[in-house]
Write a structure and sequence with these properties.
Elements: H1 2-7, E1 12-14, E2 20-23, E3 26-27, H2 33-44, E4 50-51, H3 52-59, H4 68-83, E5 96-99, E6 102-105, H5 113-127, H6 132-145, H7 158-185, H8 190-206, H9 211-223, H10 227-245, H11 251-261, H12 301-318, E7 320-326, H13 332-344, E8 349-354, H14 365-377, H15 382-387, H16 389-392, H17 404-423, E9 428-433, H18 440-452, E10 458-465, H19 471-480, E11 486-489, H20 495-505, H21 512-522, H22 526-539, H23 541-545, H24 552-561, H25 565-577, E12 580-582, H26 583-590, H27 593-605, E13 609-610, E14 616-619, H28 622-630, H29 634-651, H30 656-666, H31 670-686, H32 690-706, H33 712-728, H34 732-749, H35 752-760, H36 778-790, H37 796-810, H38 817-832, H39 835-847, H40 856-873, H41 876-892, H42 896-913, H43 916-931, H44 936-948, H45 958-973, H46 981-990, H47 995-1007, H48 1011-1019, H49 1030-1044, H50 1047-1057, H51 1077-1087, H52 1092-1109, H53 1112-1125
Parallel strand pairs: 7-10, 7-11, 8-9, 9-10
Antiparallel strand pairs: 1-2, 2-3, 4-6, 5-6, 12-14, 13-14
Family: Belongs to the AfsR/DnrI/RedD regulatory family.
Domain OmpR/PhoB-type: 1-107
Pfam families: AAA_16, BTAD, Trans_reg_C
Length: 1130
Amino acid sequence: MCRLVWRQMSTVVRVLGAFGAEVAGAPADLGGPRQRSVLARLVAARGQMVPADRLVEDLWPGTAPLRAAAGLQSFVSHLRRALEPDRPPRTPAMVLVTEPPGYALRLPDGNVDAWRFDALIDEAAELLDAEPAQARRRAERALDEWRGPAYAEFADLPWAAAEAARLDERRRIAVEMRAEAILKERPHRRASAAEAVPDLEAHTAANPLREEAWRLLALALYRAGRQGDALAALRRARATLTEELGIDPGPALRRLETDILAQSPALGELDRVEEPVRLRPFLRPVPEPVDPPDAVFVGRVPELARLEDAARAAVTGRGGLVLIAADAGMGKTALAERFARGLAGRNWTCAWGRASETGWAPAAWPWAELLRELTAAAPPEPGLAARLGPLLDDAVTGRVDEDATTGRFRLHLAVGDYLTGLADTAPLLLVLDDLHWADDETLALLVRLAERLRDRPVLLVATFRQTEVPERLATALAALARHEPVRIDLGGLSVPEVAVLVRGHCAADVDDADLSFIAERTGGNPFFTRETARLLDAEGLHAAVRRVPAGVGDVLRRRIARLPDSAQAVLRDAAVVGRDADLRVLVELAGDEDFVIDAVEAGLAGGLVTEPGPGQMRFTHALVRDTLYDGISQARRTRLHGRVAEALERHAPEEVAAIAHHYLESGGNPAKAVRYARRAAEAAEARYAHRTAADLWIRVVETLRAEGPEAIGDRLAAEVSAIRACALAGNIMDAREWRLASIADARAYGDVRLLARIIASFDVPTLWTGREYGLLDDAVVDAVEEALARLPDDEPELRVRLLTALAIELEGEPHDRGMTVSREAVREARALGDPELMAVALNGAYTNAYRTADHLAERRRIAAEILDIATEHDLGVYRVLAHLQMQQTSVASLDKAAAHRHLREGALLAEEYGLPLLAAIARWETGLLRAFGAPPDVAEREYARLGENRGKIQIWSSEHSMTLLGTFCLRLLQGRAGEMVEKTAWLRQRWAHVGGTADVHALALIGCGRLAEARKIAAAAEPLRPDYFFDLNMPLRGMRAMALGDRDLAAEAYTALLPYAGQVSGGATAGATLGPVAQILGDLARFLERPTEVAAAHYRQAVDVATRLGAPHWTDTAKAALDRLGSPAA
């Protein structure tokens, strides 16, 4: 499964620098020069269709051969095989697609470096005035994409020369935009201005005729306190322009010179003195060896060479990422360690973090381990140390008043700031070992830092077992793919290398035949081979070779059995402690210090353990610990876990997560299990590791549940934290179900504050519904009403959260109580003046502002206010949410450019803030928006792609239904609704309580001539909800009425849709559409035999809507309807 996930990663194409493509991380064979130029030409078209005739002209400038068209088809066929090697036969291509009369490249912008480059520059330009810091990041990321001249391989072709010139000009603009952003970001800081100077000096030297470059250089020099140099730069600019072009500088340069001479305050202050930058001391932490001192390192010459290449590239300031993947025992850690020791001897700073296989290490432990190692040698300044606090001290717990999203972003930013500063003193190697065991927050921070450190002399090396890739790691690897990591897959050693390894650990003389046999049996696995060699040495060559164990577990069991019984007992105790064990704990378990020391020495002699530090013992490999642990009975394990917990309390009380784990596993002391698990959960929350925190809170709840009725108050309080952590981790469905069960218990318990807190624990906002669509949960509504009636007056904040919870539960219901209570919540929140509470209440109001077409303006106003509040007060989740809401209102307002802008910003922020659910929804919405209003074939491909990836989001089947509905609407307009009878039957069955599904299924039945069945289905249709699907469901109902000849229903639909006449159907969600509402109104008017001019007026309005949305196929449809009426389009 893990290899399949790896192969399914996105296709990546590069034209900036060396031209090439990768599929699933491997180079794609793009063929010869002319075939390669086909792909390059389609990249230059930026996703647009290129006619086949134009491609022929571009491939063969001048005179094309007679069979040029056949040659082009052949090139396309070969490229499709290279770009989609796993595509089943006779299925349509999804990357290089046929789009009559030519071809187009269908890839996300992020998968083509030139497209990504363009998009980042556009985003930087939009952000430059309002958010210069964000603009600078975008410009820097754009410049990072530039790895050499664009389309260099095709420089002699006219189309390539033109596109390369365009991109080169864009690069110059990005350089200037980055400098301007730096100057705008902190206009009065000399250090900031000085940072811009070197690049601008190089830029003006390379482009001496660019007046904007000279202006920025002079301004940066002036703000850096170098007035004389600033004026000298302006004189050089004047001289260059005069000599080269015979012209004087333009108004901007002349005005700047005047301002500098006058020391105009508008240019920024010059008398500000800043603290000098202090360089951190150089340090070289070296990881403890994974193998015992006598271990022989064999082979891996090509792999080490690739690592060295990556290190050389990183030293130049380009950063780097290496992924080492292999099976257990294949030597991932040993290879990384060998490489790290080499770099540590060459003035690199090296640090190491290991994910724990035991699962009870603190959240984000590899980063905590790595940072503690580094900060001990190079302490950060106090302010930065405080920001890093949650990772440097396990006792730090989360602030309840801080927005979780923003807090997480700040913590990640602090880590990046520290490592960036450290890399300024010496190249930095960071090794993250055993990522297959890593938790979500470890992986999230890796993804964030891979982006942050990409332009620094930092090399990230990560190892993992390629046969043990959980979903969270697969997701992280997919996110890291855009950085084009070096992938090293370790296989087995060769027979000669096995021979060296065996002879290095076995004193006996082993002949070539026996060595070949061992190599075959072990598959060249270094750990298996080494352990087999030691076993042969211990048992005798002649006897042992004839019974070489089939697996490494058998080897280890036989080797452990050769130890004294007392040593085996101590090592079994150590296996319960974990991969690493404190000797003080082992002494307490064994009762005799000499007994433990003798056992450790026996393990050292046998190569089973190492001593990483004084008083510490570590198993040489996780397989050794696993073998010992698996050999202990369940009864003995349970007892030992309890004793280990007690020993850790005395000797290592700071290891809260480990103590919690051992008490929980022992089941013998519930009070302590709860106390330590609660502290571990709070520490995880401080690191924003919500999934880890949720798992711990669940264990707390389970333990308290086992304590019976006397613990119900404590249990319910713990459930508040568990539900919230679950929701923050993105498990919306689980969190809601849990809250429902907790509400019942809380109502029975009678504590209204606890009941209110449980209800409010689920207020983590998402763009999509937080409950199953169309079903009113009476139990939740009743509970909220009860809590509101009983809540004391001294809980105004809790009251606002309850009102908002009720408003969200009631959205879309026939009555308007949801809207009423949402407005009440907004009034009370505004009076309290709490920004986060105000955002909560406004979101409830937004959810209830879909009832009529007139509410569009209100939704737009609410979303804009949420965005203003979230931006001013750094409320990350609401900032993302508001952008996604603004995207929806922009589509409904026929402003697709604004919709794309807000969606792009929301998606970027969701990734930056580490919001997996909202990031996934943003990617989903991007696909929906791309399909919205596109030609039917393009839109259907987009819906198909979304359908394939729907597993990323799971909210009560809404994600599947959305793509199904979108595809149905497309086919309905094409007269192909009958093709979807079975799928619409599923939709009707799954959502039988939703009136619109009856219309959809009935229309599909009508499409294949099954009118009697359609009438039966239609007769059972429920009334339509006045919610965000009304502007799609009512047009569908109107179309069903016309198809079945129901004039009364058609008249009802016509009246209901008139207020939406200037909008596009489905615009409220931008998920699926039938085109302009006016088009359907025109059809209804004709069906109802209204005056011809009434229908014509609707069709003319449909032309206007379609034109504003840039949907020419809708325009053509409306004009055709006007032609049939004999009425002009305007």
